[in-house]
Amino acid sequence: MVGTRKGLWLGRSDEAREEWDFSGPHFDMEEVYSCLVDKRGGGDSAGPRLLAGASSSWLGPQVWRSDDLGASWQETPNGAIRFPEGSEETLARVWQLATGPEDGVVYAGTEPGAVWRSTDRGETFSLEQALWDHPERPEWGAGFGGQAFHTILPHPTDPQSVTAAISTGGVYQTTDGGASWQARNQGIRAEFLPEGQQYPAFGQCVHKVTRHPARPERLYLQNHGGVYRSDDEGMIWKSIADGLPADFGFPIVVHPHQPDTVYVFPLDGSAGRYPPEGKARVWRSHDAGETWEELSTGLPDAFYVGVMRDAMTADDHESAGIYVGTRNGAVWASSDSGNTWRQIVADLPDVMVVRAASL
């Protein structure tokens, strides 16, 4: 699934993942900032369900769903996600869709910054009210992309625990099923604040957080200046940026089978925000960020575009596939955990999100 600023494209390949067929656009001229392959089945659907958060300039945002791999799409009246009457807020975009550990549970993160929970596989959502009413929320800022919860990480086995991140507010976590939420930003630097104020309790511009289900207490984080790891589920963060050509970037992805293997796509943090030296490079660590290696085979050496926070992902094949979508409308893929790369589609609109799964 490749979500862009002007629609969604669906790609299919055999297990080798060398040749791809893409169809689209679905939701032509709509912004697609989030999508999800839910493989669990349930309800009226025995198979996988595709979800897409699309935003129409005419009709507003909607969470669409397909139970036939994109051949047809269904919508929920009133968009599946809407702020309650009296809140004086209007939904702008759905930035994140993620499955919870319980059957049927799907989480959504939106702009304005809110987290939502569905118990019917994404057909309807309810607002996580305690987070919306959090006393720190009035002080959360808006990054250049807007104020949005762009990361939601439900604990893989504990339904009471969810970790989320917002720009610019930082990391928040609930361990009591959403009854309360606490900031989890100790050790994360907010470089844009004055000296002496750069380690606040909240207010960091976190770009993305990830973790592996086999080791859920370990989190990896790409910040607006900084790459971090937590070994205690966000209580304390440690920098792992040494060895990278830049500590700015948007995505961070963990290997589907190796909890200590993590990938980033560094960018120059200046106004250009393209890779250092204009070379497309993925960087990989096999030791949880203690050391890094540059991955370049097959990637272009003249590359002056960015990669957004959700435009990098992994599939769940035994030989893991890693995918990178770019702002010039291309998707690069590796079927050998990043060792070699090939371009699998080009000339799409600006890529915002990529998701992949084996079915």
List keywords for this structure.
359 residues, four-stranded antiparallel sheet, 1 helix
Question: What would you note in describing this structure?
Answer:
The protein has 359 residues and is mainly β. The protein contains 1 helix and 27 strands. It has one helix at 129-132; strands at 2-4, 7-12, 21-26, 31-38, 49-56, 60-66, 93-99, 106-111, 114-118, 126-127, 148-154, 162-167, 170-174, 182-183, 206-212, 215-223, 227-230, 238-239, 248-254, 262-267, 282-285, 293-295, 312-314, 322-325, 331-334, 342-345, 351-354. Strands 3-2-1-27 form a 4-stranded antiparallel beta sheet, with no helix packed on it. A 4-stranded antiparallel beta sheet has the order 7-8-9-10. It is globular. The two termini are 13 Å apart. The mean pLDDT is 95.
Chain-wise SSE layout:
Blueprint: E1 2-4, E2 7-12, E3 21-26, E4 31-38, E5 49-56, E6 60-66, E7 93-99, E8 106-111, E9 114-118, E10 126-127, H1 129-132, E11 148-154, E12 162-167, E13 170-174, E14 182-183, E15 206-212, E16 215-223, E17 227-230, E18 238-239, E19 248-254, E20 262-267, E21 282-285, E22 293-295, E23 312-314, E24 322-325, E25 331-334, E26 342-345, E27 351-354
Antiparallel strand pairs: 1-2, 1-27, 2-3, 4-5, 5-6, 7-8, 8-9, 9-10, 11-12, 12-13, 13-14, 15-16, 16-17, 17-18, 19-20, 20-21, 21-22, 23-24, 24-25, 25-26
Protein name: Exo-alpha-sialidase
